[in-house]
Amino acid sequence: MTIVARQWLLNGHPRGRGILDSDFKLVETELRDPGPGEMLLKTRWLGFDPAQKGWMENIADYVAPMAIGDVMRGSGICEVLESNGGRFSKGDLVFGTTGWTDHLVSDGAELTRIETDLSPTAVLSVLGTTGVTAYCGLFKVGKPVAGDTVLVSGAAGATGSIVGQLAKIAGCRAVGIAGGADKCKWLVEEAGYDAAIDYKAGDVRRQIKEHCPNGVDVIFDNVGGAILNDMLAQIATGARVVICGGISRYETGSLPAGPQNYFNLVFRRASMAGFIVLDWAPEFPAIRKRLEGFVRDGHLAYREDIQHGFENAPTTLKRLFTGDNRGKQLLQI
Ligand SMILES: NC(=O)c1ccc[n+]([C@@H]2O[C@H](COP(=O)([O-])OP(=O)(O)OC[C@H]3O[C@@H](n4cnc5c(N)ncnc54)[C@H](OP(=O)(O)O)[C@@H]3O)[C@@H](O)[C@H]2O)c1
Predict the structure, then answer these.
(1) Which residue of 156, 252, 285, 319 sits 20 to 30 Å from the alpha carbon of 37, by its own alpha carbon?
(2) Overall average pLDDT of the 203-224 stretch
(3) pTM for the complete prediction?
(4) What topology is assigned to 130-278 in CATH?
(5) CA of 32 to the centre of ligand 1 (A)
(6) Cβ distance 159 to 221 under 8 Å?
(7) Spatial separation of the C-alpha atoms in residues 167 and 287, rounded to whole Å
(8) Is there an atom of ligand 1 within 6 Å of 248 CB?
């Protein structure tokens, strides 16, 4: 049986600007039959990450470059349709870096079988890169202790909403910064944050001072730029500043000026460190088990924003940069 896969190819490098529809090209590609040890897979869901824009631009130095004509790189969940002696059996659901293709032939070397009692999509959200990024960034870099105030930017997003809840599990006070009153309401009423700051309402620095009167012990920054600068103004002595992402600059051509308030790191004997979550990949299975336990015990809630239709993959990616996503951005195919 001949399978024709629909695939989104990279067609432009969106450097110094937002993502355009013309940065992608939809094609149909005839797949070869699975060889010995290979499987035919059908993609069921795709997961979206802000980092994909960096991969498209070809500037992310921690992964292989992407070239025009490559199948767009991304994570996905697939069902095994046929196995020619492959690692997985017909009917299994597997996840990994599948790319934007609705079918693929693979030996499954980079894929993992889904074994969770949660919904299968959890492996792309709370148990996926999102969850482990929140866990590793907070606990391995931020090192919170009970009683600390943890301030999170991009707090209503997939990663940020999990960071706040993990901080609460660790006995900390969690304060989140997000765009808009509805996201702030959700942070406090559903995601367990103690307080929320709407950066779109202005005077972020004053709002941080109001909600973190004793200073901030751990900053978990997903945004960078002016918000990072405002957060640095309110650090406590010995603070740990975790740089997870800098989405405020992902659509601009140049790097922002260095934060004016960086010298507070000296006055407050604080430290600032970035991280790439992949460095802890060998620990992911154990961390996923821990996160799953928190969800099962009712201590960790997660939200998924599921769009529909393979043809909508580019539009779905763009939602991360307009803030339209509510939780982990996914696409069901
Ligand atoms: N270091 C690592 O290893 C690692 C791994 C994974 C992810 N990350 C980073 O983690 C961050 C969060 O990723 P995610 O997948 O969880 O995405 P997400 O937070 O679910 O979605 C992105 C959110 O960013 C906010 N945003 C977009 N443009 C903005 C701007 N100009 N200024 C301020 N906020 C803006 C929007 O929320 P608002 O409506 O609140 O503005 C949007 O909902 C990203 O920066 C990503 O690159 C890092």
Answers:
(1) 285
(2) 97
(3) 0.96
(4) Rossmann fold (3.40.50)
(5) 38
(6) no
(7) 15
(8) yes
